Recover the amino acids of this structure.
């Protein structure tokens, strides 16, 4: 595919760098020449300095032959205008990053499609949704549903006291014979491993496990996770992510929202009816204690500073808060944050990349999820009538090294395949793949 990424900072940079191993023709348009020089040093991508709303610049980027145009600048109006211009100049599909979630309403989305904006992605709204979902799930630090929840991916930290620590993947199945699940990957010391049956779980491992929703309690017992009922939560940061999360959660649980900016406090207080909004510095731990930090079941730090979010989550953890969630925009901090014990990391760059990648992967991708702390991806494919995957048993598919099948959805039935399983047309297949294996794996289901 010919892909143009229009950005003005780290989101475009991260997306471009993440896609360099997928063998697409990628051009990056960015007004920041210094950032483009850095990108050129690290990759062999074509870069063009200039505004993505300029027909001259887009013409130089050869937008007329573009299969996908993704505008991920910080300013949503520029993203929308860039997509309109790109579409008029011949781009086949356009995606715009937005910050105003109201634009996602069906009546607005139809209007944007009419003028040339095919898809809208609001990372802040997706991040808030992930936060609210995670508070209802004690077993995982991250999870993602496929096919409306018929299969779920759980990211689970293996602690020293976990029953599976010191046991192999095969022993997990033997010890918990009723558990229907598959371990598709393990993140260990910054390395992503696709496990074999004899691989032994170690303290500190982050295990990516695919299971059925009705298996959550069995999975929780297997990994030794405590069931945490979240009744009270403290949110630090009243930006869009914090406000969206509080708006979704208020009335269901008790919410205390901290924000240093008085203006943002006033905006949040006008929007939120059942949330206690406090104007104060979240790095002041004494103040957080005075406002009941130690009595909270969950602590969510979503300020614009990754360092503040990490530090305050660590303080909350030290004071006994069971669930901590941090917005970490510096991707270099993700592995460190996971290693030092923060339960869940939210990253808007990965959220944006996950959304856009389903339009990039060859084959009929239904949904996808970029995984925190690794450049791997989980993708749900629709299996076509003439797909090569339907012609052989899984043992004979020549699935590339760096890829594994996590599960199959056939109608309303979920299957954890063996080497002797036959994939059928109209199946949905969940595949875990590292970048080097993505293109070859996608061809099997095309």
């Amino acid at each position: 595919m010919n892909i143009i990424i229009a950005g003005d900072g780290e989101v475009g940079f991260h997306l471009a760098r993440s896609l360099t191993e997928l063998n697409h023709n990628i051009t990056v348009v960015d007004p920041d020449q210094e950032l483009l020089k850095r990108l050129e040093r690290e990759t062999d991508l074509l870069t063009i300095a200039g505004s993505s709303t300029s027909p001259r610049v887009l013409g130089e980027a050869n937008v007329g032959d573009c299969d996908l145009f993704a505008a991920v600048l910080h300013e949503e109006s520029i993203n929308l205008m860039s997509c309109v211009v790109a579409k008029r100049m011949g781009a086949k599909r356009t995606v715009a990053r937005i910050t105003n979630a109201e634009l996602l309403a069906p009546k607005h989305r139809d209007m944007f499609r009419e003028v040339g904006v095919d898809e809208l992605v609001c990372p802040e709204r997706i991040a808030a949704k992930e936060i609210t979902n995670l508070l209802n799930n004690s077993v995982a630090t991250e999870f993602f549903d496929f096919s409306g929840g018929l299969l779920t991916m759980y990211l689970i930290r293996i602690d020293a006291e976990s029953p599976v620590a010191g046991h192999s993947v095969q022993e997990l199945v033997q010890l918990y014979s009723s558990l229907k699940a598959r371990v598709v990957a393990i993140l260990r010391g910054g390395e992503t491993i696709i496990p074999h049956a004899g691989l032994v779980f170690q303290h500190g491992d982050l295990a990516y496990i695919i299971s059925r929703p009705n298996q959550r309690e069995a999975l929780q017992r297997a990994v030794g996770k405590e069931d945490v009922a979240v009744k009270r939560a403290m949110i630090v940061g009243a930006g869009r992510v914090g406000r969206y999360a509080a708006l979704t959660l208020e009335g269901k649980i008790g919410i205390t929202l901290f924000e240093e900016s008085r203006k943002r406090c006033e905006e949040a207080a006008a929007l939120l009816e059942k949330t206690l909004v406090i104007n104060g510095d979240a790095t002041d731990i004494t103040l957080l204690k005075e406002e009941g930090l130690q009595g909270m079941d969950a602590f969510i730090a979503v300020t614009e500073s990754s360092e503040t979010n990490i530090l305050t989550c660590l303080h909350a953890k030290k004071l006994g808060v069971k669930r901590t969630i941090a917005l970490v925009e510096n991707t270099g901090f993700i592995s460190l944050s996971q290693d030092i014990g923060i339960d869940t990391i939210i990253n808007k760059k990965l959220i944006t990349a996950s959304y856009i990648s389903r339009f990039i992967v060859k084959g009929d991708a239904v949904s996808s999820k970029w995984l925190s702390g690794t450049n791997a991806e989980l993708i749900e494919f629709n299996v076509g009538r003439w797909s090569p995957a339907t012609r052989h048993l899984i043992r004979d598919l020549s699935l590339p090294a760096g890829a594994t099948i996590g599960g199959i959805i056939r109608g309303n039935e979920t299957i954890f395949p063996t080497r002797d399983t036959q994939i059928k047309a109209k199946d949905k297949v969940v595949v875990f793949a590292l970048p080097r294996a993505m293109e070859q794996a996608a061809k099997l289901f095309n």
Remarks:
- The longest strand covers residues 181-188.
